[in-house]
């Protein structure tokens, strides 16, 4: 009889414990990691051996230490994401780089982004979920923000809070940088 290695059991238990400690459902982990719900479930039950890429995606989504996962080590008390390692969103604007600063488990609830605009850059968005609001703080340069028919110009240190459940956009005349918090109700 082919006996399953102990590593499968340790991996399954560690991933399940990490998911539960974060209060996440299988669906939430699937959404955050890009790994299908059924695959996450199979891995947690020890019925599937994940590829390194799949395991990496799961550990990033659950914010657990990849190296210590099988050894049962706790993740360090301070999690550091180096500037060059922060994930980015592509294709959401013209002349704008969007770095994700919020934790993966915050997706859909409270999201934080670092926006870097080239001269003439724009981030044009369709309406988000009902009740969604955005909080935009300019760090450098000048931006204009439009929410529906309302529009305001912002300079360094200015913050705009506006409805994001209608068409909205952020535009830069020159180079600019801002922090954006998206708050879903």
Can you describe this structure?
The chain is built from 4 helices and 9 strands. The protein is an alpha+beta fold and 185 residues long. It folds into 2 domains: 6-62, lambda repressor-like DNA-binding domains (434 Repressor (Amino-terminal Domain)); 83-183, Jelly Rolls. Strands 1, 2, 3, 4, 5, 6, 7, 8 and 9 form a 9-stranded antiparallel β-sheet that branches. A hairpin with a 4-residue loop joins strand 1 and strand 2. Helix 2 crosses helix 3 (37-44) and helix 2 packs across helix 4. The longest helix is centred in the N-terminal third of the chain and has 16 residues, at 6-21.
Q: What is the total tally of β strands?
A: 9
CATH superfamily of the largest domain: Jelly Rolls
The ordered H/E elements are HHHHEEEEEEEEE
Q: What's the shape? A: elongated
What is the CATH T-level topology of the largest domain? Answer: Jelly Rolls
- Highest-level CATH class of the largest domain: Mainly Beta
**How much is the average pLDDT?**
85
At CATH level 2, the architecture of the largest domain is Sandwich
Our count of helices gives 4
Whole-angstrom Rg: 20 Å
Provide the low-confidence segments as ranges.
Answer: none
Distance linking N and C termini: 53 Å
How many domain modules?
Answer: 2
